[in-house]
Structures are given as C-alpha cells and as structure tokens.
Specification:
alpha+beta; 5-stranded antiparallel β-sheet; Helicase, Ruva Protein, domain 3; 210 residues; 43% helix; 9 helices
Length: 210
C-alpha cells in the first residue's frame, strides 16, 4: 500500500492531482479541503494517501493531513458511503466542522452536503460519534492561507469550477447556479469553488434555522 507521497506537484485540476516522485508520476484524487492547502504547481508537496484496489482499477486518494485521511477512511467503511461521496463530504466541510456536527447530532449540516440524505446523515452520526478524536480539533496549520496559491489556467476558472463541483457530486445545473452566485472577478478556480461551497453551506444553514 502507498501511504505517503513526497514530490513535485506537476498539476492540480480539481479533483485530480499529478505528483512526480523521483520520475514517476502519481495520479491522485483529492478533496477541496486538500486543494486549499496545496502549493503552486512546480513546488514540493507531501500528501498522505489511501489506495483503493478494484478489479478494473487502482485508485489513489491524497490528503493534506492525517486527520483528513482518517476521516475519509472512517467514511468509506460506512454502508452506502464510497470514495466518491467521501471526497464530496470532505470538499464541502472541514474535518473539524464535520466532527462537530456529528458530536452535536447536527444532521441539518450534514444533509446540506451533496449526496447526503437524512438517513445517511443519521447513519454518519451514529457510526462515527465515538470514532472522531482529538486529531479533529482545529489547529493553526489549517488557516487556509494557501488557498490563494496560483495554478496554471488552461481554461476558464469559471468552467473549471463548474466541472470540479460536478465531479464532486453536484448536478451540473446546481454547480452552475452556485458559481453564478459568486463574484468571480479576480478569483482563481480554487477560490471560486471555496466561495461557492461556503455560499451553499450558508444557504443550507439559513434554511435549517427558518
């Protein structure tokens, strides 16, 4: 199993990464919580990884922190939650906020994530309540200051953001609506995605409190 990679970040196009490790290019998929922390393409990066071996493919998932990877591993052990939904959950909410929602039995926060219905939210709360420990306490390194790191733009940041949100589980029409609600001028792809996800979370919170 491959548990950690250290090498040069060749490209990053949500949700996909390409990392060169001593001449070998590793293709990975990562949640947006990891993308916000990545350096610019061409710089060195360290990622904690989880490998899934299927009959038709060997898939590698990358995470900026051990806590993110642990949450992902806990998620995919739950019936009905596969790697794709695991990435979607981590893209829509931080590991710390997810743990808080589980510990506070806040199903409304979880159902605001794409692909998470009421029954799935209840299952997440019941099965993960006792599995999320101190490593999910907020720490300074997750300030998100690196979200503005530049990435090479081969196409429109807006279209790339819509494509990334669609890959994360949102329906194309919903992804387009989320991006249209963002003031995109001057923003790169990652910043557009971050703002769109924050807007969706805020709207869900308001609807739940009304």
């Amino acid at each position: 199993m491959i548990g950690r990679l250290k090498g040069k970040l060749l490209s990053k196009q949500p949700p996909e990464l390409l990392v060169d490790v001593q001449g070998v290019g590793y293709e990975l998929e990562a949640p947006m919580s990891t993308f916000y922390q990545l350096p610019a393409a061409g710089e060195e990066v360290v990622l904690y990884t989880h490998m899934v071996v299927r009959e038709d493919a060997q898939l590698l998932y990358g995470f900026y922190s051990v806590a993110e990877r642990k949450l992902f591993r806990n998620l995919i052990r739950i019936n009905g939650v596969g790697p794709k939904l695991g990435l979607t959950i981590l893209s829509g909410i931080s590991a710390q906020d997810f743990a808080r929602a589980v510990q506070e039995n806040d199903a409304a926060v979880l159902t605001g994530l794409p692909g998470v219905g009421k029954k799935t939210a209840e299952r997440l709360i019941v099965e993960l309540r006792d599995k999320l420990g101190e490593e999910f306490t907020p720490v300074a390194e997750e300030s998100g200051d690196s979200a503005a790191a530049s990435m090479p733009q081969q196409s429109s940041p807006v279209s790339d953001a819509v494509s990334a949100l669609t890959a994360l589980g949102y329906k194309p029409q919903e992804a387009s609506r989320m991006v249209r609600a963002v003031e995109v001028k001057g923003l790169d792809t990652e910043s557009i995605i971050r703002t769109a996800l924050q807007g969706a979370a805020n709207n869900t919170s308001k609807a739940g409190s009304s």
